[in-house]
Specification:
23% strand; Arc Repressor Mutant, subunit A; alpha/beta; 3 domains; D-Maltodextrin-Binding Protein, domain 2; 42% helix; single chain; 301 residues
Length: 301
């Protein structure tokens, strides 16, 4: 089997259209389609459904595509192991990231890692926990920074941060030192990423409280802007809020509510040398984080 054709197939699925995939691969759409059709002929099965809106895996093809993805990962691991034996560290890593980490200390990690290992190609994917976990499971991510509550696989805790209420300027609760979950739930609530298996979903579920949802958005930064405009209140973790600009007031909860963030891997047993170097460096950076209300490093296990 020609693994280059497998790469073309996986790129088309990732991009969602032949046009985007062909542009990424530096080839024509017709050439890309021919290569994938050739792979389908070789395997005697249809792998893609082609339509006006793009391409998606054919019905029943997901298990085959998963095995093909494993095959590509295994080939990449072989080359990385050979390079490691020779004293070199090469390869590529696709890193998923929870929003709060991607805007705070992830850039520092990527810069430090790139300087130390320039032969390793890095790419990032930002999303909510549910999206990142699905990508970990289907093999399109090598690792992901996310919250611990949502993942039951190999996980390296790195730091904790607290939940805070986001209040618009002039809100009566600004005068209080802290707020309760019930107080926030009784206000017009702006829900970032509703039902995305997010920390905020889990936050309200734990307290068995339903907020009065006034508006919802898929973007936590849009939620912040809506609060700033006086459209309601919201909840987020403090780490994600420290770089946002505006007049929104952050209030801690009583009792304090915290969430552990860390690095999730599909499998520690199959982790590449490059990935383990990234894990090690992430731990080192987390340990050097200054302690404060926005977050604190967790001890390495």
């Amino acid at each position: 089997m020609n693994l280059e054709k497998v790469e073309y197939l996986l790129t088309a699925i990732e991009c969602g259209t032949f046009s985007l995939a062909a542009e990424k691969l530096g080839m024509t759409q017709s050439g890309l389609n021919r290569q994938i059709s050739s792979l389908e002929t070789e395997l005697k099965t249809t792998l893609l459904l082609r339509g006006r809106r793009g391409v998606v895996p054919a019905k029943g093809a997901e298990p085959i595509i998963a095995r093909l993805r494993d095959l590509m990962t295994a080939e990449r691991r072989v080359h990385e192991e050979i390079a490691a034996v020779k004293g070199l560290l090469t390869g590529s890593l696709t890193i998923g990231s929870y929003f709060s980490i991607s805007t705070t200390w992830l850039p520092q990690l990527l810069k430090q890692f790139s300087d130390a290992y320039p032969a390793i190609t890095l790419s990032t994917v930002e999303g909510a926990d549910a999206e990142l976990i699905e990508r970990l499971r289907n093999g399109s991510l090598d690792c992901a920074f996310l919250s611990q509550h949502s993942y039951d696989g190999d996980f390296f805790p790195l730091m904790e941060t607290e939940f805070v209420a986001l209040l618009p300027p002039g809100h009566p609760l600004i005068q209080a030192d802290c707020v309760t979950v019930r107080q926030i739930a009784e206000e017009p609530f702006i829900y970032p990423r509703l039902h995305h298996n997010s920390d905020i979903d889990d936050f309200f579920t734990r307290h068995k409280i339903e907020p009065k949802i006034h508006l919802q958005t898929n973007d936590p930064y849009s939620a912040y802007a809506m609060v700033n405009a006086g459209l309601g209140v919201s909840v987020n973790n403090r780490l994600q809020s420290i770089n946002l600009k505006g007049n929104v007031v952050l209030k801690p909860f009583h009792p304090q509510e915290r969430v552990a963030l860390g690095l999730a891997l599909p499998s520690l047993e199959t982790a590449s040398p490059a990935l383990m170097r990234l894990v090690s460096m992430a731990r080192e950076i987390a340990e050097k984080l200054p302690k404060g209300p926005w977050g604190a490093a967790l001890p390495a296990e």
